[in-house]
Write the structure tokens for this entry.
Amino acid sequence: MVETLSGKLNDGAIGVFDSGVGGLTCVKELIRLMPHEDIVYLGDTARVPYGTRSQETIADYAKQDIAFMEKHNVKLLLVACGTVSAVMQSVPIFEGSSICCYSGVIIPAVDAAIAATKNGKIGVIATPASIRSGCYEEEIHRLKPDVEVFSRAGALLVPLAEGGYTTPGCEPAEFFVREYLSEIKAKGVDTLIMGCTHYPLFEEIVGKFMGENVALISPGAVTARLAYDALKAQNALNCDTHKANIELYCTDSVELFKENVERFLGGEIDAKISQCKL
Ligand code: DGL
């Protein structure tokens, strides 16, 4: 994560990208913590989902996402996509990139889960590509070999989140939460990493299903908190108390994206939304 911000000025924006709208769970927390920071967000809505694709395709898309971010003055880039963060661990997609300060969501989510667990049993639900990579389990065991990890891929929650089927009582959402989490729940985990940044949209349903004693970790939100701490520690927060510029880019229709932005961020956010080509 953020090693040095040399050469990047305090007034650069925080860049955030995801395959779609999931990364807005990170943006929401960034805005809450740092209301004066400019944010540039990219959601590759024309090609979502990434999580059901091969590692090569995901790496290829991610390189294009990063190239887009390089055109903006970003002082820090947050990869608010669990799937890209997982692929990044084995494919050096930042090689040759001018962006030196970045964080994926895996390490922040794992750190938060290890801090939260009391019984040493952690559940992980993420996209098929993330689960296949084994990165959550590997990182947890690197830090704490004795923790038991129970993982499951939950691909169909992504289209449900993108389609707005996330509220309690919504039958498809309730069904797939039960389907994907029953085995993990039966193992007695006390902490669950919702390892895809889309999943916190189901927090109410998941929380009710898992029970109030299970800590739910939102990778986007914990990464935003880490970004805040890192920028503050390096004296790299924007000192100007101007109204922040929030620029949101999508690769498919602005109309469709707008609905999701309102649902994810709440209507009161004053953001400029545009379509872009990668
Ligand atoms: N939001 C993404 C993640 O965190 C990806 C969902 C997808 O594109 O499959 O993994």
Remarks:
- The beta strands are 13-18, 39-43, 74-79, 102-103, 121-126, 148-153, 191-194, 215-217, 246-250, 272-275.
- The CA atoms of residues 177 and 206 lie 6 Å apart.
- The pocket of D-glutamic acid is lined by residues 18-20, 22, 48-51, 81-83, 127, 130, 158, 196-198 (CB under 6 Å).
